[in-house]
C-alpha cells in the first residue's frame, strides 16, 4: 500500500495540505498518517530571570501547540472520515523533537513512507528566513518524495 505522511505545524496551511494528501490517497489507494512534532527545546538556565522567562516561553509554546493541534484535529478529522468511507486507513501521530525537519525525515524513513506532504511555509518570521524553513530542510534531507503544497 502507498503510504503518505502529512506533516504540518498547525496553521492555515493545514487545510490545503490535508486536502492534497486526501486527493493523493484517493488516487493511489494509500494510507495517510498525520504527524505533529512538538518541540522540546531545552537550554541551560543560569539565573532566576532566565528561569522566569523560560516559564513564560513554555506557557506560550504550550498554548500555541494546543491551538495547532486543535486546528489540525478538526481538519484531519474531516479527512479521516472521508478516507474511511472509501476504505482507506488513517493514523495520527504526535512525537517530541528538537529538529522538526530532521525528525519528520527520520520518521518517514523509519516507517517506510512513499510520500511526505508538507506546506511551503508555516511561519514567516525573520528567524525562519535566516535559518531556513522546515520545508527546505525536509526537501534537502528526505530520502523519499516530497510534495510541497502552497
UniProtKB/TrEMBL annotation:
Listed PANTHER family: STRESS RESPONSE PROTEIN NHAX (PTHR46268), UNIVERSAL STRESS PROTEIN UP12 (PTHR46268:SF6)
InterPro entries per the UniProt record, alphabetical: Rossmann-like_a/b/a_fold, Universal_stress_UspA, UspA
Q: What is this protein called?
A: UspA domain-containing protein
Q: Which residues form the UspA domain?
A: 3-150
Q: Does the keyword Coiled coil apply?
A: yes
Q: Which organism is it from?
A: Halanaerobium saccharolyticum subsp. saccharolyticum DSM 6643
Q: Which domain of life is it from?
A: Bacteria
- Coiled-coil spans are 44-71
Family membership: Belongs to the universal stress protein A family.
A UniProt-annotated Pfam family: Usp
Q: Which UniProt keywords apply?
A: Coiled coil
The transmembrane segments are none
Does the record carry Phosphoprotein as a key word? Answer: no
Amino acid at each position: 500500500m502507498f503510504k503518505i505522511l502529512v506533516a504540518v505545524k498547525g496553521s492555515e496551511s493545514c487545510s490545503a495540505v490535508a486536502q492534497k494528501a486526501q486527493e493523493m490517497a484517493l488516487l493511489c489507494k494509500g494510507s495517510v498518517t498525520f504527524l505533529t512534532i512538538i518541540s522540546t527545546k531545552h537550554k541551560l538556565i543560569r539565573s532566576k530571570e532566565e528561569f522566569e522567562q523560560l516559564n513564560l516561553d513554555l506557557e506560550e509554546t504550550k498554548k500555541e501547540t494546543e491551538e495547532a493541534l486543535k486546528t489540525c484535529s478538526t481538519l484531519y478529522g474531516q479527512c479521516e472520515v472521508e478516507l474511511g468511507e472509501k476504505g482507506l486507513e488513517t493514523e495520527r501521530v504526535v512525537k517530541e523533537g528538537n529538529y522538526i525537519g530532521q525528525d519528520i525525515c527520520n520518521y518517514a524513513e523509519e516507517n517506510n513512507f512513499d510520500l511526505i506532504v508538507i506546506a511551503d511555509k508555516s511561519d514567516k518570521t525573520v528567524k525562519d528566513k535566516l535559518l531556513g524553513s522546515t520545508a527546505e530542510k525536509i526537501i534537502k534531507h528526505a530520502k523519499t518524495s516530497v510534495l510541497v503544497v502552497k
